[in-house]
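A student in our group prepared the protein record below, which I am reviewing. Thanks in advance; the entry in question is below.
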Amino acid sequence: MPRSRAGRRFGPLRDDGTARVKLALFLRDCLQGERTSPFHTTKTLREAASECGYSASVLSKALNGTVSPSRVLVAALTKTVGSTAVEARGIELWRLAALEDLGLHPKDLVLPSAPTVDEFATLLRGYLVDRPQELTPAAMARASRRASFGQRPLSVPTINRMLSGKVLPTFEALMSFVELAGIGSTVRDRLFAIQASLAEQRLNAPGRVVA
């Protein structure tokens, strides 16, 4: 069983095909790959954790596939290897894992489909995955107030309700959202069509409030 080189052992981890485990295995290679591997580093788990600005415990959970690490952690750890190719691959695997945690696949963002409000909310969260720090509800609300989309600015409570599936966003709110998220015209047209279909369903079967 491989050692963490920080006074503990990593548990066995078999590739089960999930993006989270593939990411964990990749990060292990970054930390303790063979000396002939381009991923090889002499840093211990604690040294790598300290350099990344995280505790050894947090890094250990990421390396064991217990939790999906943050994008910042993945970027910081892969950067210690000193290879831009490794950094890019780490972020690519992180994105797949983040989407997988939402129950999404990259193709779902290209050809969006959502028969329910809850699934529509999940889809909208998927478009925020690539910019988790820039596109927090608070950051989006601030940007909405500064922008001139010709729509009423989005508030943090409105964004939170949209992303939690508690409400179906209005056309105006969705318009502001896709502008802030930088969603392309082809995909945004599909999103507008989904919103219109769900809104029509609501008119025929009143339930949650459209806000």
In short: The chain has eleven helices and no strands.
